[in-house]
Design brief:
By secondary structure, this protein is an alpha+beta fold. The protein has helices at 32-45, 78-87, 107-126, 143-155, 180-190; strands spanning 3-7, 11-17, 20-28, 51-59, 63-68, 93-100, 128-141, 159-165, 169-175, 198-207. The strands form 2 sheets. Strands 1, 7, 8, 9 and 10 form a 5-stranded antiparallel sheet that branches. A 5-stranded antiparallel sheet has the order 2-3-6-4-5, with helices on both faces. The chain is elongated and about 75 Å long.
Length: 217
């Protein structure tokens, strides 16, 4: 189980520099093959572009980081794109920046800045999210005890999903593995040993910058 930062959705950004157009597209991916497929799709759609430069960072069992300058001077396009992903510590992301040359040379420094700025624009538009692998837990508790439990969950940084109100209050809680024993102990103390937490499985939970759950589409 791992935690990482990625982007929440596809991002799109257009930058104009000395008549050249830099069109950046960012996409969240799960595998290296998905990244390669996206790159090929952009290349096919933008076949008339001067350059389709890209970078991706994908981590599953191993970390894969690749980039391409696609004909631009070495180190002026793909690497600046990858540097944005590295500095922001983003994983499972691919970015393709398509350039339509406007007739004015930018120089090596200008290219580095343009490709990096275009990539950052697409990432900003997509929005950064945290993905945390957690145990999904159901906790049905008596109403008069629910306030104590809710305070513990909030103060200790547990992620609260749904809250259902029926005969009891049932919380859906997402917990990192290392805090499971602590949560179990707290629930036993609150209920005088009458209740044990029920683990439903594991789930990758997406959180925004404020720590709120982003619902699955």
């Amino acid at each position: 189980m791992k935690n990482y930062k990625t982007i929440g959705k596809d991002g799109y950004f257009v930058l104009e520099e000395k008549r050249s157009r830099f069109i950046a597209r960012a996409k969240p991916v799960s595998t290296e093959q998905e990244a390669l497929d996206f790159i090929q799709t952009v290349k096919s759609e933008c076949w008339d572009a001067t350059h389709n430069c890209y970078a991706y960072s994908v981590e599953n069992d191993a970390l894969f980081q690749r980039y391409s300058d696609d004909g631009e001077p070495q180190g002026t396009a793909g690497l600046p794109i990858l540097d944005v992903l590295r500095k922001r510590e983003l994983q499972n992301v691919v970015v393709v920046v398509t350039r339509y040359f406007g007739g004015i040379l930018l120089g090596a420094g200008g290219l580095v800045r343009a490709y990096g700025k275009a990539c950052a624009g697409a990432v900003n538009e997509a929005g950064e999210v945290w993905v945390k692998s957690c145990h999904e837990i159901k906790i049905p508790i008596e109403y008069h005890l629910s306030g104590k439990l809710q305070n513990i969950l909030i103060n200790e940084g547990f992620i609260i999903g749904d809250t259902e109100y029926g005969e009891k209050v049932e919380y859906t809680v997402y917990s990192p593995p290392e805090k499971m024993e602590f949560l179990q102990q707290q629930v036993r103390e609150i209920t005088s040993g009458a209740l044990r937490i029920e683990v439903k499985g594991t789930k990758e939970v997406k959180l925004d910058a404020n720590g709120k759950i982003i619902p699955d589409n």
